[in-house]
Design a protein that fits this description.
The chain is mostly helical and 338 residues long. The protein is built from 14 helices and no strands.
């Protein structure tokens, strides 16, 4: 944990130093110290170009990248335990399709324009959270919910949301809107702002801490409902609570950064290979590793193509897909439980 914390700080310093304008570590140190000692607000004008680059452009997006990496990695761990499927990720239950439908409706139909300049993200958040509630409702029809019913319900609703999104795109005939949807689906941290981070940060961190306290129940989920009942624990209500908390995290991630895949799938795989399947160790290590991964990836997105920023979703997919195939081929992975 200490090593990962140090690596996260080093990743921040490296990512702050690179870009169109390169900064030395001395400039970064002075810029950070001066802000804390001056007592002025971050947005106060006249504090110099180095201050603006650090505090208004790079640091907010890096903090957002760390929060998104932390949230998606932990959600991946939780979803894999909830549905007892090592191939699960934060979007497995159709949450991404709900977010996509919300964003598509906002961009092409103008739904939610009254909510302000972030109306696309807010609509995506509403769509993601509504999808999770719909999955819970369907999985409880005709009997109590279980991991298989959650998975099937998510697949069904995902297909419905995908059909509605395609229907809207087909009849809207809006080329600019379709380009906006494509860019949003690739993910980006460029729109990070301190006022949004003040809301997203506490929610993601508190949700991760709550899920960390549930390590014992998550370990029981790997054993299955029957084994848990013999130990005197009914996992039904816990499964639904964890799904809603994870959906809350994913909804805010989608709201702030768009769609970013593979993080919640690959990071838990790698960390399980290193620290085992005990969620008491798995959750905090996965959170820090996910934060480091996305901070470094965001830095790479800004330097791979000169004077152009590569969407984070493209780079993550390029890295994540081969890593996932390698893990499948290597077959040294254990999921725990039986």
């Amino acid at each position: 944990m200490l090593l990962l914390a140090v690596l996260l700080v080093l990743a921040f310093l490296w990512a702050l130093s690179i870009g169109t304008v390169k900064l030395s570590f001395v400039q970064i140190y002075e810029g950070i110290v001066n802000q804390f000692t001056s007592g002025m607000a971050i947005e106060t004008a006249g504090q110099g170009p180095v201050h603006d680059i650090i505090w208004l452009l790079r640091l907010p997006r890096l903090v957002l990248a760390a929060l998104v990496g932390m949230g998606l990695s932990v959600c991946g761990v939780i979803m894999q335990a909830v549905v007892k499927n090592p191939l699960a990720d934060p979007y497995i239950l159709g949450i991404s399709s709900g977010a996509s439908l919300g964003a598509t409706a906002a961009i092409l139909l103008g739904i939610g324009v009254a909510l302000g300049e972030n109306f696309v993200g807010i609509a995506a958040f509403i769509g993601a959270f509504a999808m999770s509630l719909g999955v819970l409702f369907i999985s409880n029809l005709g009997g109590r919910s279980n991991s298989i019913k959650l998975l099937l319900g998510g697949m069904a609703l995902s297909a419905v949301c995908g059909a509605f999104s395609s229907f809207i795109v087909y009849f809207a005939n809006n080329k600019e809107g379709m380009q906006s949807i494509a860019y949003w689906m690739m993910g980006s941290f460029a729109g990070a702002k301190w006022e949004n981070l003040m809301i997203i940060g506490p929610i993601v961190i508190l949700a991760v801490l709550f899920l960390w306290t549930q390590s014992r129940m998550l370990n029981l989920m790997l054993l299955g409902d029957e084994s848990a009942l013999t130990l005197g624990t009914d996992l039904h209500i816990y499964r639904q609570i964890y799904l809603l908390v994870s959906s809350l995290i994913v909804g805010f991630v989608v709201y702030s950064a768009g769609m970013i895949g593979f993080v919640g799938l690959v990071v838990p795989h790698v960390i399980r290979m290193l620290v085992g399947t005990d969620h008491k160790r798995l959750i905090p290590v996965a959170a820090l590793t996910g934060a480091i991964f996305l901070v470094v990836a965001d830095g790479l997105c800004r330097i791979i193509i000169p004077r152009t920023e590569l969407p984070i979703g493209i780079l993550i997919s390029i890295i994540g897909a081969p890593c996932f195939v390698y893990l499948m081929i290597k077959r040294t992975y254990g999921f725990g439980g039986n």
